[in-house]
Amino acid sequence: LPPGTDPVYLCVHVRRGDYVNVSSRLVSDSEFAGLSAKFAGLVKSIVIVSDSPLEPAFRQQVSAGFEQAVFLDDIDAFGTHRVMRNARILVCSNSQFSLIGAMMNQQALAIMPKQWFDESHRALEEPINEVCDFQILA
Hints:
6 helices; 5 strands; 5-stranded parallel sheet; alpha/beta
């Protein structure tokens, strides 16, 4: 993270790059932005990691309410995973990469999508949802 970044930060993992090849549902930017806004005022810093460029409107929307916003959409996979593993609050995408980051981060409040797949693959998400104890009211 850039020097001076608060060590207590919200990390949002926005996965886009291989969506077409491996996923059947895309978590929208508005879903990530809406969830992030719920933590504005609770933590000073938000760090958004992504495997693809983030739209300027999305950057502006998720920055609101945070003293510091860091966007890492040109970082390698190792760096991305390290940022996720050190976050105090981690908002995951519907990816195994994100899930493993959450499982390896014992200090974080990890938040995962309730729906990982489209209707035709719902049985695949049952084991993931079984490890979740709470949901966030939208």
